[in-house]
Structures are given as structure tokens and as C-alpha cells.
Amino acid sequence: FNVPHGLTIDHKDNIWVTDVGRHQVLRIPKGATKPDLELGEKFVSGDDDKHFCKPTDVAVTSNGDFFVADGYCNNRVLKFSSTGKLLSQWGAKEGNNGMTPYTLNIPHSLTLIEELDLICVADRENSRLENSSNEALKIIETFLTFHKY
Length: 149
What we know:
Strand order of the largest sheet: 1-2-3-4
NHL repeats: 1-31, 44-83
Order of helices and strands: EEEEEEEEEEEE
Pfam families: NHL
Organism: Biomphalaria glabrata (Bloodfluke planorb)
Strand content: 35-45%
InterPro entries: 6-blade_b-propeller_TolB-like, NHL_repeat
Shape: globular
Distance between the termini: 39 Å
Keywords: Glycoprotein, Repeat, Signal
Structural class: mainly beta
CATH topology of the domain at 4-104: Thrombin, subunit H
CATH architecture of the domain at 4-104: Beta Barrel
CATH class of the domain at 4-104: Mainly Beta
Number of helices: 0
Largest sheet: 4 strands, antiparallel
Radius of gyration: 15 Å
């Protein structure tokens, strides 16, 4: 590790680590000492499908698909298959200092509520929490906001 930031344990007891120094997301199987999945290019930041810029958190579904908050630079949430294939993404900082109902400004933490089909995002610099559909990845509710649009 370089600068480990986020830590998640999934349903299979895999350990997920976001490393903001390496710009990577790592999955370490239970009992292993090395990752079996590394996403992002080590020490190379970027905003394309193969790179992150200081990813902050991971949330994993029961089928192994997972979400990554690529928060500090890219202001997006990405959804991947269990094998690491990018399925979709949303969010970005744009206009109005990143403050619209559909943009993110440092999505910092994720929580998955599968029974409600929700991925919840702590949108740190917009001072709000957002609920998005797990499947459609579009914001369906903003709550606890402390700013006006």
C-alpha cells in the first residue's frame, strides 16, 4: 500500500482497499496476502475507464458487482462487474461549483442498501447525501442537503 484510504469487507469476506496514493482499488481474497483484482494503473491518475484519481470508497453487491467513489479529482461513482468490467458511471463536477442536483463534488463514502435498490453517496463538498438507483445509476433523491441550488 501507499496511502490506503477506504476499507470494505464484502459478503465473501474479501477485503477491498482504496489507495489514494496509488490511484487504485484492490480486492484481497480472504486468507490471501496479495490482491486478486487491481483496478487503476499504479501511481497514474486519470479520468478514463482504466484510471482513477484518488478513489475513496467501495460498496459491493451480493452478486459481487461493486461501486467505486472516485472522489477527490473525478467526482464520479463507477459501477463494475465482479470481474472488474466497467458497467456504468455517473457524476462529475461541472458548473455552479459542482452544485446541481445531478453533479457530485468529492463523493467520499458509499453505502449500499440492496433491499431498497439504493446506492447512497456522501457528497462531501456539496454537503449532502444522495440516493441513487443501484441499476439505473441516476440520482433519485437528495436529502440532508445544507446548500441551496
